[in-house]
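During the no-cost extension, the postdoctoral fellow (Dr. R.K.) reprocessed legacy sequence entries with the updated structure-token encoder. One reprocessed record is reproduced below for audit purposes.
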Amino acid sequence: MADPDTLEAILAPPKARPTLASRVPEGGTKDPAEILSLFLAWVEEVGFDPYPAQEEALLALMQGNHVILSTPTGSGKSLVALGLHFKALCEGRRCYYTSPVKALASEKFFSLCEDLGAENVGMQTGDASINSKAPIICCTAEVLSNLALRLGDRVDAPYVVMDEFHYYADPERGVAWQIPLITLPRTQFLLMSATLGDMRAIEEKLRQQTEREPVTVSSDQRPVPLYYEYRETPLHETVEDLVEKGRAPAYIVCFTQRDAAELAQSLTSASMSSRQEREAIREHVGDFHFDTPYGKTVRRMLDHGVGIHHAGLLPKYRLLVEQLSQRGLLKVICGTDTLGVGVNIPIRTVVFTQLCKFDGTETVILKVRDFKQIAGRAGRKGFDDKGWVVCQAPEHVIENKRRERRAGGGKRSKVHRKAPPRERFIPWDQKTFESLVRRPPETLKSQFRMSNSMVLSLLQQDGDRNDPDRPNFASLRELIGRSHESPARKAELLQTAAAHVRSLYHTGVLGISKDAKTNYRWVVVNEDLQFNFSLHQQLSLFLVETIERLDPTAPDYSLDVLTLAESVLENPMAVLYRQQDVYRDELMAQLKAQGLPWEERIEKLEKVTWPKPRAEFVYESFNRFRRVHPWVGSDNIRPKSIGRDMFETYASFNDYVRRYGLERSEGLLLRYISQLFKTVSQSVPKNAQDEVLLDIKAFLRTTVEHTDASLLEEWEAMLHPELRLERRDQAEKIKQLIRDQELLGDPRAFAARVRAELHYLVRSLAHHDWEEAVASVRQVEGAEPWTEDRFQTALAPFFAEHTELDFSGRARGADLTRIDVVQPRVWRVRQTLVDPEGDNLWSLEGTIDLRRGKSLESPLFQLERIGT
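Re-encoded structure tokens follow.
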């Protein structure tokens, strides 16, 4: 990548190019020759020169064939996918793009918005839904898989692009790549990856089940050749040498988020960027809100030309790093191997800090496929004429060579040698590196498995068909029969599916319906469950069953439901370990103050773990559940308190991060809260959701919305380019994107949503967090805005009279929030403020006005006055 000569060159926006959407003929066309001609004309106009493999793949797609595209990273697979999207637009049909991770789905979403127009592109990731009626949908593989399970061949998916298809062999998630292939017989597929390996078996299955011919297009030719180096110099020296030799930007691959963060922070002490380049970074960042505890650290790294990129970061920080990288403003990006799933960061050099990785069970040498996926990111067409892949020798080997040199070539016995790590380490050397470079990727193996969620979706599909001639469990048997498994494995899957059906029936999720005339009996899903009821977690059925054992009149009933929901989620260990450390530190201080001997203190500390509310009840219930439901196998329940802890203390996201020192895991915490909200909303039966649980749901949703709305903001900026440069100042308008008519139709849920927003505002006022208070109210055009100064002035008399604004549990009672309907879609709202003396004469008063198409995106409350 050529270095810009001037600040103006660095900051100049990319030249506008004609959008592909503008080439769709008026009224559309279904002529494949015309579609291909229009697409290639656009490709030529924007300056692309297609490779033979691209032309072959595009021709096969236009002829109606499946295409299996296996070409190196950077060889233009995305251009082929764009051709299929264009075909769908010309024909007035729909095309899905699927990826393994949300980061890649969102990146492709923004890229396609630029080429096809924001109005033509939507995104669905499970956590976010944007423009979901668009003809082109970017989503994670699980979203399309769940849709296919629920609707079968009735899914409107004439075309599907499955990116990073090598995930087909992933033990946990591979089933999501297989389900569309075996449930969408009328769909034309484009399967893409740089590391597919031998695909003959999958190709034959696709041919048999769709009666459409698959065409494999493969090539080993890289547009940008790669050069490989094995280094035995300390990592800092390697990085500085690469920057000095013009081999930046470099992606330093670590295999833990902690290692990536520590390396990025240490590199800020080196001279990575010139003063002019640092000025360009600051200019591009502008008034971006680094408004979480880790934000200041991220900003300091970026100011030095060092980026960081891993799943522990908030999405808005990852997005900013990607944008700065694409502009060539960062010299070094430290991150985990998430780079290997196709996130578009232009990289000249990839540096492996090690060749072994802990896979969650054991430490292993990288698979050839994983190595090639990451290494292939080096050297991008249009930026570089060559790329480099550098592998560091083990750290102890590098250090021992340094000690040998210092010893002046003396006998080895005189050198005190550093030992290799004892844990999570497997030795590698240059031969290991060369073997990974040389060997082909492993053959993809089917990873099909059954779950409660899959069984439920298939039974819902049968119920929706309402076909009396179709036998019970027809969709379930058909799915297993079409799977890419052996006959013996299919028999096992049928037994597992039968066990899941029995479990669903015994817990009341399924029932039996009977036709009085014919006496025909069939299995149905319980009609009392909410429309979006799901069992996405492996142990969601335990949640449903165990809720029945709780006493709904108990004071902590809703909190215990929340605990059960948290128990079925995966453990975010970085958060739980920090909870454990904080509780141990607090206990140590108490024991020390009591004068207990050291040995007794240590003995008590060893028994402390992260909080596990109702642990005895949860474990006892799970043991009963396991005895009745043998399909559980070795899976275990995981009681914890993160969402419950946040709600009971009504901590904001930033408060919680600071309390437990979770700065490096903000993204992990936000993702967990999102999953918990989804689980409580969709897996807790509606009849078990009381007023308090509705408040809990609203609190979780409000926390997520207040923390990071970057995806919605970016899409709005693309839909309205005139807002692009000022979108940070117009965040309140941008947040009005998504409508939620279902919430308006449920008065209890709507009231809970309003209370959550008001409680968030009161909490900000109680903590004198005026900036957060401003962000918690909807500003009204033409009215005096609520600023930090205005909030301070309005509350000055209150704090002169009272020492504090109470925000304990009693200050969040539903009786303190009054919501009166004024007219359709307009409400008058009053929130009583609680003072320590209990006079409670002060209140917040305002309006919620959702007329003229205004949406339910936060904030809703239009504050008018604060006073007695």
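The chain has 34 helices and 22 strands. The radius of gyration is 29 Å. The remaining legacy entries will be reprocessed before the final report is submitted.
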